[in-house]
Design goal:
The chain is mainly alpha-helical and 194 residues long. It has a domain at 79-139: Irregular (MYOD Basic-Helix-Loop-Helix Domain, subunit B), CATH 4.10.280. 57% of the residues lie in helices and 0% in strands. The protein contains eight helices and no strands. The longest helix is centred in the middle third of the chain and has 31 residues, at 78-108. It binds a DNA duplex (16 and 16 nucleotides) through residues 1-3, 6, 36-37, 40-42, 64, 66-69, 71-72, 75, 83-84, 86-88, 90-92, 94-96, 99, 119-121. This is BHLH domain-containing protein. It comes from Periophthalmus magnuspinnatus. InterPro entries: ATOH1_bHLH (IPR032661), bHLH_dom (IPR011598), bHLH_transcription_factors (IPR050359), HLH_DNA-bd_sf (IPR036638). Keywords: Developmental protein, Differentiation, Neurogenesis, Nucleus, Transcription, Transcription regulation.
DNA sequence: TAGGCCATCTGGTCCT
DNA sequence: AGGACCAGATGGCCTA
């Protein structure tokens, strides 16, 4: 199951527990209010990670409401609302897992000094370029090794495990003398995206 | 100030 | 039935 990669303890996301707990113990004030909007991530950050949902302030006028608030107000009550809140927490956890994966991917992609964080789209693009460059580089090394040893025996390819042996494979059209330009191309691509 | 990027909520759909 | 996944909507933050 994919969920295995996203297993996160409750202690890592205490807000999940707070939400559910709050929904259970004070569903009237929690569910019937528009506090979901108040309990946004940024509120948590700016308020010093105070993860206790704000109580509705009757004196405060409604300056803006989003669709989610409207939905929360009109679509679900009681147990339904409880399930929605739990689903929101799971979705938040899932997205955090996804973002963590993006961070790990960024950490293995070469980047320029003083470069700002790659966007998600750019991260995927750079990863694709980087993998291609590494594959072609490795293909060149393998070919060179085969030429040096004269080895033509069958060997399982590290680059393409389901393909034939490396040494009889023609591989990509790139020659090893172009390898140094691969990474400059990557760097150029990185620059272009900024 | 507009545009890009992001986090979050939400409802629908698929899967176990 | 419940969880995972997805896409749309919304609003906040940041930068040119």
């Amino acid at each position: 199951m994919a969920a295995k990669a996203e297993v996160v303890s409750w202690t890592e996301y205490p807000e999940d527990f707070s939400l559910l707990h709050q929904a259970q113990i004070s569903s009237k004030t929690w569910i019937a209010s528009n506090s979901l909007h108040d309990f946004s991530r940024r509120d948590g950050e700016t308020a010093g990670l105070s993860l206790v949902p704000k109580l509705p302030d009757p004196s405060a006028g409604i300056t803006h409401r989003n669709k989610a608030d409207d939905g929360a107000k009109t679509s679900h009550f009681g147990p339904q609302r409880h399930r929605r809140v739990a689903a929101n927490a799971r979705e938040r956890r899932r997205m955090h897992g996804l973002n963590k994966a993006f961070d790990e991917l960024r950490s293995v992609i070469p980047s320029l000094e003083n470069e700002k964080k790659l966007s998600k789209y750019d991260t995927l693009q750079m990863a694709q370029i980087y993998i291609t460059e590494l594959s072609e580089l490795l293909a060149g090394v393998v070919r060179q090794d085969c030429e040096d040893t004269g080895d033509k025996g069958p060997r399982r390819s590290l680059l393409h495990p389901h393909h034939g042996p490396d040494c009889v494979q023609t591989g990509s059209a790139h020659s090893s003398d172009g390898e140094s330009s691969h990474f400059s191309d990557l760097e150029e691509s990185l620059t272009r995206t900024q």
